[in-house]
Amino acid sequence: MDLVLRELLEYIVDSMPSSVTGSSLTKGELIIGVQRESLIQVLKFLRDDVNCQFKMLIDICGVDYPDRDQRFEVVYNLLSLSHNNRIRVKVAVAEDVAVPSATVVFSCANWWEREAWDLYGIPFSDHPDLRRILTDYGFEGHPLRKDFPLTGYVEVRYDDARKRVVYEPVKLTQEFRSFDFLSPWEGTPTLLPGDEKATNAGKGTA
Questions:
Q1: How far apart are CA 44 and CA 151, in angstroms?
Q2: How far is CA 150 from CA 43, 120, 145, 170, 187, in A?
Q3: Of the four listed, 5, 39, 135, 169, which is most buried by Cβ atoms within 10 Å?
Q4: How many Å from the N-terminal Cα to the C-terminal Cα in the chain?
């Protein structure tokens, strides 16, 4: 099976040598990196080529690498039902640089691109309706970015006196803590309660 997948991977790379930036075969799944400008061309090839037939877009997700020049990766997971294969397409993109919308190839990309914009702030050019989809109206920031504060910026509660939902700045009851997971108070002990019974079970008693 791996030999067949490897031959398919070589076929894909050889068909679009200037578009593919890298490739690998991991756990029975094909992975390719592509140029941002070539994304639509690559997706159309993977969907329409008779040897590929990746006609189903399973999902789109973002990954945040704050230390990289190209901070984000947009990942497209495709499935070929006819060949029973999967492929993962990755596009690296800098912050505030738009990725071509995949809605022209897969209409289902609409909501997943909205989710990536909402949670990571990754813009998609030529998207028909790029607006937030999971967070509330007026939400500040993008909550899955690694520099987004864990507490957020505002808290939401129902005010019984005003009979409506209100937004207020976050007020912490204690300062942020620096967790030391090597501490026995904060880390998981290597020997959990009851484990000593299993250790002593194999030992005979005199």
A1: 41
A2: 35, 14, 10, 11, 20
A3: 39
A4: 56
Token output for 128: 């028909």
Distance CA 8, CA 54 (A): 12
Q: Give 77's pLDDT tier (boundaries 50, 70, 90).
A: very high
Phi, psi of 7, deg, nearest 5: -65, -40
pTM recorded for the entire structure: 0.78
Q: Please state which CATH number belongs to domain 2-200.
A: 3.30.460.80
> What is the C-alpha separation between 120 and 72, in angstroms, rounded?
8
Q: List, for residues 171-181, the tens digit of each pLDDT value.
A: 765 555 565 65
Three-state DSSP state, 4: helix
Domain ranges of the chain: 2-200
